[in-house]
Amino acid sequence: MVESEATLGRFEKYLTLWVILSMIVGFLLGKFFPELGLWIGSLQVGDISIPMGICLFLLMYPTMASIEFKEILKAAKSPKPTILTLIGNWVIAPALMALLARLFLSNYPEYAAGVILLGIAPCTGMVLFWILLAQGDVAKGVVIAAINALSTLILYAPLAAFYLGIGGVPVPIAPIVESVILFVGLPLALGQISRKVLLDKRGEVWFKDRFRPVIGNIAAIALLATIVILFSLKGEVIANQPLIVGLISIPLLAHFFIMAALFYVIPWLLKFDYRDAATIAFISSSTQFEVAIATATVVFGASSEAALATVVGPLWEVPSMLTFVKIALKTRHHFFHGKTQLYTAR
Question: Which of 99 and 40 is assigned the larger pLDDT?
Fold first, then answer.
């Protein structure tokens, strides 16, 4: 496997700026043209937003095309990162979010409930994109994401019932299955098929120097479009209730950075290499907000404070992940001397 540096072409250098501008554009669209957000929100098939689905697929496809299938098979034979990530997702993350919700939202029980539902829902497919940017092990990320999806079907409902103190919490099967199929399975299959066909027909040099930068730019555009859509959908809410949104954001951001830092340092203490540490950190700190939103809507109602709290989560997903990508890349040589073997597409 040829080692080279993963990039998003010309977009990568100023990606933080583009993200901030996209957040502002989305917010302004949602505030001054709320009917646009309503129209975008109406474009759905089942529980899936068509514009969001297209953007997330275009974001995930280049990520999946960047790895070799044999690397996924190899990753499945390395259980230690998976075990550590499962401990982070199902033992530490829910307890930490419950603690933070009680510290910051003790006077707002429904907001606290929504935040807790986010803390219990681990790992969305988008996290694989951030692992790629941080030059972690995307193949291991695919394996762990699949295992997380299966464990969510078993563990999400009982943990939600335990931490919320209520019975009858439903298992949100549809969002879990749809997310895995549309944003992991389908991009993985198409990415691997197109990778093999293009490598056979055009060769490795063309794939690396011509095709990969193009799909990298497509991924960057899809990421920015995703941000614009998210903030346009919630621009009016942010404008009308900025203090509440800010209050909900405190435990969400604290949870993300505590989990990311903790599960970046623990692999270092256990002498894992950088690629494993980055993968574990991102998956342990990521949340599958689709599951939390679906659960809050069913249990508390679509217009509830709990549902509002869950929709604040996606607004911070991209800026938080992007920030930690930069932290990980800047600290890798300080923490992982001699253990910074990097993976990128061949």
Answer: 99
